[in-house]
Amino acid sequence: MDARNIGLRNIEVADTKICSIDGENGKLIYRGYDILDLVNHSTYEETAYLLLFGELPTTDQLKDFNRRLIEARGIPEPVIKNLRNRPKRAHPMDILQSCVPELADYDLNIEDASKEAHIRRAITLIAKIPAIVSAWNRIRSGHHVLDPLEKVSHAANFLYMLRGIEPSTEEAKVMDICLILHAEHSFNASTFAAREIASTRAHLYASIGGAIGALSGELHGGANVQVMKMLLEIGDPANADRWVANRLQSGGRIMGMGHAVYRTTDPRADILARLSARICREKNNKWYEITRRIEEATKKWMVENKHQGIYPNVDLYSASVYYSMGIPIDLNTPIFATSRIAGWSAHVIEEKFAEAAPKPALYRPKAVYVGKYCGPMGCEYTPISSRSK
Q1: Could you confirm whether domain 223-324 is CATH 1.10.2020.10?
Q2: How many CA atoms lie less than 13 Å away from 161 in the CB half-sphere?
Q3: Which of 154, 185, 203, 315 is catalytic?
Q4: Reading across the β-sheet that carries 33-34, which strands appear in turn?
Q5: What is the pLDDT of residues 211-262, one digit of tens each?
Q6: pTM (two decimals)
Q7: Which of 118, 154, 259, 347 is catalytic?
Q8: Is 315 a catalytic residue?
Q9: Do 269 and 317 touch, CB atoms closer than 8 A?
Q10: DSSP one-letter string for 104-160
Q11: Measuring CA to CA, which residue among 337, 331, 364, 358 is closest to residue 141?
Q12: Domain 223-324 in the same topology as domain 13-219+329-352
């Protein structure tokens, strides 16, 4: 097998109108709009609308979309009851992955397979996933679950339900930008998982449950957790250069550096670096400075040892941003899901209701068998009583 194609690298499996990535030039486009423009001028709610509907909303359309999100923020009481019965040691991603399919039980029109029904379900999940993440964090910490606020943004309400205090304007804006940046990224592992499941005609809840499972791995959504553990281990900016050199010389990886698609700096990393610098300065902590030193030390080591250039990805600076806002480390990946649900839902809907021919079909890739071979007729079965020890 061509090494470039391992992990389906460079294999085009479908068309999409949702997202474009220019890995050579570091460009990320949502539905035709540059991520930099969305960060500077949009909100997460408007960006989610864009991903779902394909166009930026009018004032009235956004107002109605916000209303629907606010109305869907609550969690069914039986789901909360089930959360209270879960072991407190349960990982938040396992909790989230199990809760999303459970929401299908409360969809009274689950048999409705129309596009409109899928959009309704997408709005439900965009609203409820942050509520589930917040509820679990409060339950495992021995606090009561908070009712959502009705007159604040999606980002501000999430921080309130998570921490129990209304966030500052600055914190709400930082979280809003983080949600925009993580909302979509074309055919990454979790998005492809969602589309593959959707191709079987499974419902949206099942597709998103699978996407959450794919996101949970440390090579995907779990990478920013590993970044923060790295920052805590280094502890001081003065230790960064030696730590990085030791890790790379021993064949280890620097989490948050390098990307499967980008051959230059991930545009999201540039934005997050600025956010990290701002919030770490406000909180008077060292996490941005350590992260910056890690980036510089890694690039320097790669040049000195004649390796291909490496650049930061979205995970490198997001870790320090969340930690500086008092968010537990193991919630970094659930926050990723809180944002990416908009992109996942858009892809599931596109997979199910593609306008262009050919119509959506069940994904069924081919594998090259390299296992045991006993000739064209196969291996002869030996009864267990006759097999040698």
Answers
A1: no
A2: 26
A3: 315
A4: 19-22, 27-30, 33-34
A5: 999 999 988 888 889 999 999 999 999 999 999 999 999 999 999 999 878 8
A6: 0.93
A7: 259
A8: yes
A9: yes
A10: GGG-TTTT--SHHHHHHHHHHHHHHHHHHHHHHHHHHTT-PPPPPPSSS-HHHHHHH
A11: 331
A12: no
Q: Nearest Cα to 327, choosing from 371, 387, 385, 287?
A: 287
- The domains of the chain are located at 13-219+329-352, 223-324
Cα angle value 135/73/166 (rounded, 5°):
65
Q: What is the pLDDT of residues 64-109, one digit of tens each?
A: 999 999 999 999 999 999 999 999 999 999 999 999 999 999 999 9
Which of 175, 174, 149 minimizes the C-alpha distance to 160? Answer: 149
How far is Cα 36 from Cα 348, in angstroms, rounded to an integer? 25
Q: Are 172 and 159 in contact (CB under 8 A)?
A: yes
Residue type, 59: T
CATH homologous superfamily for the domain 13-219+329-352: Citrate Synthase, domain 1 (1.10.580.10)
- How many other CB atoms are there within 10 angstroms of residue 159's CB atom? 25
